[in-house]
Amino acid sequence: MKFKMSEKSLFATLLRSPWWVSLLVMLAVALIAGALLPEAYKAAGTLAAFPFLVITIIAAWRQRNVISKDRVNALVDQARGMGWRDFSTLVENAFRRQGYKVDRLHEGPADFQLEMHGQITLVSAKRWKAASVGAEHLRELLLACQEQQASSCKYLCLGIFSQPAKEVARQNQTQLLGPVDIAELLNK
Prior knowledge:
Layout lengths: L9 H7 L2 H18 L5 H6 L2 H13 L6 H12 L3 H14 L3 E4 L7 E5 L2 E6 L7 E2 L1 H13 L4 E5 L3 E2 L1 H10 L2 E3 L1 H9 L1
Parallel strand pairs: 3-5, 4-6, 5-7
Antiparallel strand pairs: 1-2, 2-3
């Protein structure tokens, strides 16, 4: 049996919050226990703050590489101002840093073929500046993925993905990389 934490629980909420929020809750629990409990129970009451320390450490670990909103905005603006040649070179280098073998594709809906551990992934970034990406572009990429027997595909766009596109991606396990994902890719 696999344990799944409720999304609305206090611990799940704290895991999504900045790490220092959990630290403040931990300190508050420890201080209140120390101040209000009788002397015989202070040590045990203070230990009630321990789970919040664990949540603080987990949240801090998860958030260690998250980039700020200002940095995301700057990277997105930088990417929007680039031409295809510069942008595609940055994307190619970013995937290489992640350990992929990258081949550029010159025809079809995919721009890159990534390979790692024998698994092929097709990546489309042609319409990276598009304001909105619809399902038809995703279907073209999925068709190419099937034709080349790729195991997965990714679609990069600085705009938004339409609801039908999100649904097609969800049904076909296609990864949609939006502005924040592209900024994280380019940040390294």
